[in-house]
Design a protein that fits this description.
alpha/beta; 450 residues; Rossmann fold; 56% helix
Length: 450
């Protein structure tokens, strides 16, 4: 049972002793407090934080574990426990508890920063950057987040972005160390610094990305994670994400709207088996199941984090028994799909794998899948990719009718869920962060009556 008594009065003495650098005296006072209040969760948490800062992480873990037995789903306790394991170099254990904390409170600033730091250590720089931007979207002047982002971008070889966050780190650290109060609007600093380097498009894009994280988090909170519009209305999605910054569009129903309309029309008109290649967090896979557009979906997803979030989303929706989640899709996938289609259903494939579409949809696989309906997101921003796309169209046109689907206009003022946002943020909500106009290629079997 949780100890509901007030914290002991001499706890303030322990805190003051610690501030004065009297570490052993503070430790003794904390122990005295713990003797009289052995099950007080807040005391256990505070003492564990003290111990972690003073390299006594083993005892900190013991106290936090005791606190979690009393209050098992406290995101603050879980984050602190993850930090204690991290301080001991036990990164896998740290990740387990930080993921638990983020599943309860996805916007937790400290949990996102600790997770970002660990992912940098693990070499997962892209995922680390996503966590750190999430933290900054709620606390733009967080000194450590800018430091870690600077390091992550440096390791990615993106020196301009590295320099941008290094400058912000220095700026906010100086304010902190000089005792200046937090800025009322730290975004002004970002844009003032951006003005000095207005030609550095990467820095501008980075500032915009950070704001997009804020806008998406705002819409998520307003919608409470529930899709409000479009064919997947009623679907609940986790705020944790393995990919991108596109929650607003998904929750309001205009994410990839042109593709979504065509895909849902095909699914609704066929007795199908739906294959989602590059499923990310399972938006299309789970949405199609919730909307009764398919009875079974097979989702291929390269990343472990993406597969984990997809499964969590599926369980939340109660459709996990109709979803098969697989790892990376390779060139042998066509044989696998045909072997699974024992009831001879219409195969419908959606593919979004960041340029590798040209590697798996070989002429041989296209011939095997000649009765399938395919929707393929095209990534052809480089001359090499454009040549691959040209050859792909030539091969596909032998057995399929081709149609290009292009992204179209958006009207952000249709959605009352964004009423509290300013004009700029309305339009940022519409952005999917593409580096070029998006297009998809729809492949329909020749002489198809679908």
């Amino acid at each position: 049972m949780t100890d509901q008594r007030p914290l002991p009065e001499h706890l303030n003495q322990a805190v003051e002793q610690y501030r004065q650098g009297r570490i052993e005296e503070a430790r003794n006072t904390f122990n005295d407090c713990l003797t009289s209040h052995p099950d007080h969760v807040d005391l256990l948490h505070l003492y564990a934080t003290f111990l972690t800062h003073n390299q006594d992480c083993a005892q900190a873990v013991e106290l936090l574990s005791r606190a979690l037995r009393i209050r098992p789903n406290d995101p603050g306790l879980l984050t602190s426990l993850g930090s204690s394991y991290q301080a001991q170099g036990l990164l896998n254990e740290a990740v387990v508890h930080l993921q638990h904390a983020l599943s309860i409170q996805p916007n937790g600033v400290e949990a996102n920063i600790r997770m970002g730091e660990i992912l940098v250590q693990k070499g997962q720089h892209g995922e680390a950057i996503g966590c750190l931007h999430t933290a900054l979207s709620f606390q733009p002047d967080h000194v450590e987040a800018h430091f870690l982002l600077s390091n992550a971008y440096h390791l990615q070889g993106k020196q301009l972005l590295c320099n941008c966050h290094a400058a912000l780190y220095a700026h906010f650290q100086d304010r902190q160390q000089s005792g200046q109060p937090p800025e009322k609007n730290p975004w002004n600093t970002l844009f003032r610094m951006m003005d000095k380097t207005i030609d550095d498009r990467q820095i501008i894009a980075n500032c915009v990305l950070t704001r997009r994280f804020y806008v998406n988090s705002h819409v998520y909170r307003v919608c409470n994670g529930l899709v409000k519009h479009g064919p997947f209305a009623g679907m609940k999605i986790l705020e944790s994400s393995s990919w991108g910054c596109d929650k607003a569009g998904k929750l309001l129903g205009f994410y990839e709207a042109e593709l979504l309309q065509d895909l849902c029309s095909v699914l609704a008109e066929t007795d199908n088996i739906f294959i989602d290649i590059g499923a990310a967090d399972g938006y299309y896979a789970i949405g199609s199941l919730i909307a009764s557009l398919t009875n079974h979906c097979i989702a291929y997803e390269l990343t472990e984090n993406g597969r984990r979030i997809t499964l969590e989303n599926a369980k939340q929706a109660g459709v996990e028994d109709r979803l098969t989640i697989r790892g990376a899709c390779d060139v042998g996938f066509a044989h696998e799909i045909l072997a699974m289609n024992r009831k001879n259903k219409q195969i419908v494939i959606l593919c979004d794998i960041e340029g590798f579409e040209f590697e798996i949809f070989t002429p041989a696989n296209l011939a095997l899948l000649k009765e399938a309906i395919l929707f393929i997101e095209i990534h052809d921003s480089s001359p090499e990719a454009q040549e691959k796309y040209r050859l792909f169209q030539e091969h596909a046109a032998v057995v399929f009718d081709l149609k290009v689907i292009r992204i179209g206009p958006r009207d952000p003022y249709r959605y009352r869920e964004m009423d509290e946002l300013n004009d700029t943020d309305h339009w940022l909500a519409c952005s999917e962060g593409r580096n070029a106009d998006m297009k998809w290629l729809r492949l329909m079997p020749r002489r198809s009556q679908v």
